[in-house]
Amino acid sequence: MPSSQLQLNDHSRIGVIGGGPAGSFSSFFLLDMAMRMGIKIEVDIYEPRDFTQAGPSGCNMCGGIISESLVQILATEGINLPTTVVQRGIDSYVLHTDIGNVTIETPLREKRIGAVHRGGGPRDVIEFQWDSFDRHLQDLAVSKGARVIPKRADQVIWENGKPQIHVRNQDAQEYDLIIVATGVNAATHKLFKNVELKYAPPSTTKTHIREYYLGAEKIEQILGTSMHVFLLDLPRLEFAAVIPKGDYVSLCLLGEDIDKELLTTFLDTPVVKNCFPDGLDLDAPSCWCSPRINIVGASDPYADRLLFVGDCGVTRLYKDGIGAAYRIAKAAASTAVFQGISADTFEKFFFPACRNVEIDNTIGKLIFMFTKHIQKRTFARQAVINMVASEQSKPGKKRHMSTVLWDMFTGSAPYEKILLRTFHPGFWGGFLLNLGSALFSTKKPTTQLSVTDDSDMTV
Amino acid sequence: MTTGELGKLYQHGEYIVRQGEIGYCMYVIQEGTVEIILEEEGEEILLAKRKAGDFFGEMALFDRDVRSASVRALGPARILTVDKKNLLPRIHQDPSMAFRILEIMSNRIRELLLEVNRLTEITKQNNTH
Q1: In this model, does residue A450 exceed pLDDT 90?
Q2: Which pTM does this prediction carry?
Q3: Residues of chain A contacting residue B99, judged by C-beta atoms under 8 Å apart
Q4: Which end of chain B has the smaller Cβ count within 10 Å, N or C?
Q5: Between residues 7 and 66 of chain B, which touch chain A (CB distance below 8 Å)?
Q6: Which of A58, A86, A84, A93 is nearest to A70 (CA)?
């Protein structure tokens, strides 16, 4: 059969390797769309980990933020995240710098961002009060008809033009389509050691995530319902956040190969210490990990009857990885169901979604380079704080800087949209004015300002 | 201690949407029930009730008219806003996102047709008597 005629039909079988968000979203939407088309397909998810387990064995190692845009889109899809999964609803971001801080809120202080644990929780969790986010998504896929095979896929080979998944001590299973959703922290290349593929895995960098137990009440008291982000002059640090969860707080550091030296310097910073209770030993977290993240997407994440989704394919730079997994998984499912499963078809209908993310990441890198310059200069940090404060002080005033910061921190908007917002003359007019003012000012502010995000405002 | 609620909490009787306002978003009920009311010449006509998982205000996404009815909380209700400016670009990129909205809207048209049939039958019977 010419590869361009490869299609999913009644009784087609799909093997999904990896049961994290990208694998579960792919399975969910494949089954949903096939059902709408009246095609009966079978979907098997190979996932050896039990996401209800505490500690690293049940965890996919991530900050665990469900962005504002993803919360809204999932709700539109009929996927409402229950309070048994969302550990804390987030309604604002606090930007901390060494010269003051500002709070940016959602309209009406609506809780639009969800903080979750990907697995069962940190290794010392005693009472499982909340469900794992990854398990919740897996259960949704199962509710659509997917079957979870709690085994590790060891190898993929091709026999008679179709791929087979090999699992230790079991017969190989033949599939019409295989979707690989193994993330970047698994040895994906070993799966294909006997197959010639154009696929080249993504480039990665090391991050650092820590969990501290504070208890729900103390978290409410110190951090409230805000995510706390830091704009500090620390080399190699691109982004740092303290995320309040249910009983725990997650600390996430992103940048160029985060190491112990950078971590120690960060934790010793007074504004960081202020986000934790006095006496808490920051060197003794409940759980920690240094996962790798995808910073340059995989090349050729498709072949005949084969797709790579999620972090082992293409994902968003630094922010909203779960949102990117959703978008790419949906592109994979809609291409497979409505268009076909050949490499040519994937190139035409699936790959554009990946390419858009990669182009957006390139813009994101430019924005982060610009942010670095602000990070390094006290007067520039001062100008950002002053501009946000000024936008807040005058009702009805266009909130250029606040909106840009909101979109940067929340990961809700594509980097392209953030860049376009900065092209507005009002943004540069205000910023240059505040830069000039901060450069010649001797004022030493230690402000606690509240700035409401004006999402309905046109920039 | 419940900490994971998403959306905004409205108390019993509190208005979420006012008839005649311009709408920029639709709403998804996370918890509780709301009532949809048509306000005509000082009188209120209950059109429907919606519960957790349902959405309302979706007409504002696709037309540029004012809200056709008011919506208020029936008991405490937690509501999540879905912004038109976020959703429409996504639907443009991924038209399958509109499947569920279309499905629910077509179910509502079906319900309305049944209601029209029922009312037509009642009118016929009244005319016969």
Answers
A1: no
A2: 0.93
A3: 36
A4: C
A5: 7-8, 24, 26, 28, 30, 52-53, 55
A6: A86
How large a percentage of chain B has pLDDT more than 90?
Answer: 74
> Which of A71, A76, A83 is the closest to B2 by Cβ?
A83
Closest by Cβ to A73, choosing from B3, B6, B90: B90
- Contact (CB<8Å) B8/A76: no
ipTM at complex level: 0.92
Is A334 in contact with B96 (Cβ distance < 8 A)? yes
Rounded to 10°, the helix A133-143/A21-37 angle is 20
Q: What is the pLDDT of residue A325?
A: 97
Please say whether the beta carbons of A316 and A239 come within 8 A.
no
For strands A42-46 and A13-17, give the pairing: parallel
User: Per-residue pLDDT tens for A124-144?
Assistant: 988 889 999 999 999 999 999
Split at pLDDT 50, 70, 90, the class of A2 is low
Number of residues assigned to chain A: 459
Could A80 and B24 be called an inter-chain contact, meaning their C-beta atoms sit closer than 8 Å?
Answer: no
B3 to A69: CB separation less than 8 angstroms, yes or no: no
- φ/ψ of residue B10, rounded to 5: -110, 135
> From the CA of B78, how many Å to the nearest CA of chain A?
10
pLDDT tens, position by position, A277-309: 999 999 999 999 999 999 999 999 999 999 999
Q: Tokens for A139?
A: 């259960």
Place of tokens 């082992």: A312
Instruction: Please measure the distance between the N-terminal and C-terminal CA atoms of chain B and give it in whole angstroms.
Output: 61
Q: DSSP state, A311?
A: G
Please indicate whether, in this complex, the C-beta atoms of A75 and B55 are within 8 angstroms of each other: yes
Q: How does DSSP classify residue A54?
A: S
* Chain A touched by B96 (CB under 8 Å): yes
